[in-house]
Amino acid sequence: MPRGRYSLHDPHDHTPLAEEHFQCAPGPSGWRYVSQLTAPSGDHLGSVDLTLDELGRPLRLELHAASWQVRGAALDGVTWVRTDPTGTHATEGNVRAHAFTGPSPAFLIATARLLRLTPSAPATRVRLVAFTDPVLAPLTVDQSWTLVEREAHATDNGPLTVDAYQVTALDTGEQHTVHLSGDVVLAAPGIELEDLESPPSALD
Q1: Considering only CA atoms, which of 131, 128, 116, 110 is closest in space to residue 31?
Q2: Could you give phi then psi for residue 172, rounded to 5 degrees?
């Protein structure tokens, strides 16, 4: 069960945004990721709780940020309920999309798990609903994912397989690279793995 800490920063000017203390593991339903986010000041910022089924679809998502809350799941595309800080107003949304995304590294792992790309596979288009900071506002985004390289690196605990994905935002054409090993993000724009207490779990 990997657990550790990511640092999140603005990918353009590297301003520190948060630290995300996480743990994740394969389970009977598929895979689960839970984390707590803290600001550089040490204040609590929010949390992420994501469970995927064995095919990589979101069985359950619960996000908290700035007293806002989102609960979602794969249902007729993806469906969610967003509740305001007072708890008096809840709005439901539904989009014909494949899954959710957002700033948390959890969503990169979830998208890779959903797509199950191989190095020889063509670029694959995916539609995602992003929940953006600071109030978890929903935004539908289209991306293209390609697995450009898969390398095995020798470690004290045996070989570590690292996958490099090229991710393209289809609205802007902007491209970036994401490096994953199992269910851990090794590097991505705005994300750095600062601490890892146990090796990544393989996600077959």
Answers
A1: 110
A2: -115, -20
**Closest by CA position to 99, among listed 84, 116, 121:** 116
169's tokens? 């935002």
Q: How many CB atoms lie within 10 A of CB 167?
A: 20
The pair phi, psi for residue 112, each rounded to 5°, is -60, -40
Mean pLDDT of 31-43: 96
Q: Quick one: tokens of 152?
A: 């095995």
Distances in whole angstroms, Cα of residue 175 to Cα of each of 55, 92, 145, 146, 148: 26, 31, 10, 11, 13
Q: Where are the extended beta strands (E) located within 41-89?
A: 44-53, 58-65, 68-74, 78-83
Q: How far is CA 97 from CA 13, 19, 165, 194, in A?
A: 31, 29, 20, 32
pLDDT tens track for 134-191: 899 999 999 999 999 999 888 777 788 999 999 999 999 999 999 999 999 999 999 9
Decide: 70 and 62 in contact? Cβ < 8 Å: yes
